[in-house]
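In response to reviewer comment 3 from the previous cycle, which asked for concrete evidence that the modeling workflow produces usable outputs, we include below a single protein chain processed end to end. The sequence was submitted unchanged, and the resulting structure tokens are shown without manual editing.
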Amino acid sequence: MNEEMFKQRTKMLALSVIKIVEKLPKNKTADIIGRQLLRSATSVGANYRAACRGRSVADTIAKLGIVEEEADESFYWMELLVESGIVPKEYLQNIMAETNEITAMTVASIKTLRKHNEKKL
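The workflow returned the following structure tokens.
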């Protein structure tokens, strides 16, 4: 997968989460978890774009680390929505799978960059 395709995937994740959050029940718990999910999921794509503009391999790795953290955090908030009974698992199943894939691909990219960086030293 190339950089542009991954940018699109992370943007689609954000757009999907925006739609999900807009449909959450109107109560205090759903509002708080929804805000957290919205913040972390939209951060995934924004930080990936920043990583693409990294000034060095170390800078890119650091920014990809943020992408990994935000994607993992997004998954956590989705788990809470499901496990608290606010949202049925089936409703979030696909977006949770996509979030896991984005996390896994980010981790793989970090490992590859570290390996290549070590060879240069």
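The mean pLDDT is 96. We consider this sufficient to address the reviewer's concern, and the full set will be provided in the supplementary archive.
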